[in-house]
Amino acid sequence: MVTSRAAALLGIGVLVGAVPVAVGVNPWTVLVIVAGIVVLLVLADRALATNPRAIWLSRLGDTNVRLGETAKVELVAHNTNDSTARLLVRDLWVPSAGASDSVYELSIKPGQKLALGTSLTPTRRGDRPALAVTLRSFGPLRLSHWQITRTVPWNLRVLPRFESRKHLPEKLAKLRVVEGAIAIRGRGQGTEFDTLREYVPGDDVRSIDWRATARRNDVMLRTWRPERSRRVVCVLDTGRTSAVRVGDEPRLDTAMEAALLLAAVAQEAGDQVDLLAADSRVRAAVSGVHGRSLLPRLVNALAPLQPALVETDFEQIASEVLRRERKRCLVVLFTALEPGALGEGLLPVLPKLVARHQVLVAAVHDPALTELASTPVDSADAVYSVAAGTRALLERQRITTALSRNGVSVLDCPADTFASQVTDEYLALKAAGRL
Known about the structure:
By secondary structure, the chain is α/β, with parallel strands linked by helices. The protein folds into four domains: 4-48, no CATH class; 52-159, Immunoglobulins (Immunoglobulin-like); 191-226, no CATH class; 231-431, Rossmann fold, CATH 3.40.50. It is 38% helix and 28% strand. The chain has helices at 4-22, 27-48, 168-181, 210-216, 251-268, 294-302, 314-324, 339-346, 350-356, 367-373, 380-405, 415-431, and strands at 55-61, 64-66, 71-79, 85-93, 99-100, 103-108, 113-120, 126-138, 145-150, 155-159, 191-198, 220-226, 231-237, 245-246, 249-250, 272-278, 282-286, 330-334, 358-364, 409-413. Strands 2, 4, 6, 8, 9 and 10 form a six-stranded mixed β-sheet that branches. A hairpin with a 3-residue loop joins β16 (272-278) and β17. The N and C termini lie far apart (72 Å). This is Lipoprotein.
């Protein structure tokens, strides 16, 4: 292809050719000579340009990054030709990858490799792929160029922010209290044997270990701690209601933050955490993972999840939980308190689920409803706003009451404290021996 330089050179030639025309030379002869010279220069320049197909491309760099952070990905160009390559390179990514400095002008000597760094600051969670790389190879005079577009595959997975990890020190401190940093003197439901210690006046005599007392010739007491190796199942509703934005992010992202914080604390407590994300079908499932690999597995499973504009099938979700979890466990259902969805979908299948498991429904409260209900009544429009907000709040209260009557714990709190309160509820249930 011809560049603008060739057109400029032709224009200069025409201007120079105006001198012989002024002294009587045929203008067409001058134009043909000038055009011929420019064409020969263009062809020569094109012949000297490196074929871009001789440039080998590969990628190096980050494959994962948290939302809000910056990743570095390098495009490595290797010149396998015998001549110097003068290139204009454009590295194209999807817009939500937040690519910067993606156009480069460089010169690569024969056999040389150059790494072109691209900074990526994604604006959305999920997989952000590289689209294509366009190579434009110029000749020494830059009068013409070769151009090809190639695909150099690379995928950057954008993980959830997990900003709720700032609450971990506080929650782990509460967990240590629950587990017995302060000794539990009496045995209650959901506790297991911890250690033996000497009897202190005021201790419950029912906890005296008479066999240990006989062996040691001193009154020995058993201490107890909440049972470990319990099971927690985080169920994320990815249906249409999860797409509603509460504050600055969708409900689904807020639920992810809460699920990750809960999983981190439950892991430290020695409990097993499983994950199920579903709407009309199962979107993601993580089970049977222990130790330090749990959080990375959960984060990678949650990263590509997006709300689906379908109605959630709670009957299928309940069936999946009952099929996967044979032993009693805590099922935390992250959903919305929508009377239609829960009343028609969840309430009919609750008896089977509650009969086997402890169920907690965790929902993000939308502050817009409270604002509507408290709108000053100074116009006709304000009356309708107050009526709409009040009705929505009453319907949420009605569905909360219906769930509680079926033995379900309900948590309805603002987005900024949602993750913290879900974990507090888990710790409260654990301390009460209800897991």
